[in-house]
Amino acid sequence: MILAGIRTFSFVDYPKRISAVIYTAGCNFRCKWCHNWEIAYSDEYKPLTEENILNKLAFLKKRLSALCITGGEPTIHNDLPEFIQEIKRMGYLVKLDTNGTNPEMVKYLIKNGLIDYAAMDIKAKPDNYYKLINVPKDYWKDISKTIEVLRSSSIDYEFRMTYVPGLSTDTDVEFFEEYLLDNEKGYITIANSTEIFEIKNKKEELKLNKIIFR
Q1: Nearest C-alpha neighbor of 136 from the set 36, 28, 40, 41
Q2: Strand order across the 212-213 sheet
Q3: Angle (nearest 5°) at CA 174 between 120 and 183
Q4: 40-69 burial, b if ≥16 CB within 10 A, otherwise e?
Q5: Domain residue limits, the chain
């Protein structure tokens, strides 16, 4: 595992629980607007050892019961299951944040009881994805497979979209709303400027029906 950081206390990353957050480095996307771009596709971070992270989690278990693994994109790391196994042995509930491009990994994690909650990004309608992820490859087939993996599982999950003014469109939002099933949780946020990407003409209002703004 390539680990880029740990936050020891969060009220917002695991639903209805106070959690810790682990950040993995590296991503197969190159989103210009990513607020974690330093760990996603640059070398502007200091790697942490698994031993260091696991020791901190063992100490934090005295007051926490949940953990979120985010990135970057955690599922690009082949040894993610082994790392989570160590965390599960401590008794943590584990939430995975993913872009949905590795359905086999997500399926394996669910099948083996390694994650309890998943939050998956749906960044745009399929034909607009390349603008949001800044990569020419078509990932929608894999993404749609991961969606079906979650829908056929017994774990709790949610879908998320970040609206990026200048890149996202109202039809992306419409697609997201229409794609959600009636019993599914869908959330949307509006991107903020970062050190490398300026949001111009920030759109403060979106016409929403099923999805929730946060």
Answers
A1: 28
A2: 3-14, 17-24, 66-70, 93-98, 117-121, 156-163, 186-190, 212-213
A3: 55
A4: bbeeebeebeeeebbeebeebeeebebbbb
A5: 3-213
Which tokens belong to 77? 């790391």
Q: CA 171, CA 125: separation in Å to the nearest integer?
A: 8
Cis peptide before 186 (omega within 30 of 0): no
* Parallel/antiparallel/unpaired status of strands 186-190 and 117-121: unpaired
Instruction: Report in angstroms the alpha-carbon separations of 103 from 4, 197, 202.
Output: 23, 30, 33
Asked if 72 contacts 97 with a C-beta cutoff of 8 angstroms, the reply is no
pLDDT in tens, 39-64: 999 988 889 999 999 999 999 999 99
Instruction: Count CB atoms within 10 A of the CB of residue 15.
Output: 13
Average pLDDT over residues 91-109: 98
Q: Which CATH architecture has domain 3-213?
A: Alpha-Beta Barrel (3.20)
The pTM (predicted TM-score) of the whole model is 0.95
User: Which candidate, 113, 137, 110, 112, places its Cα nearest to that of 126?
Assistant: 137
Write the single-letter amino acid at 92: Y
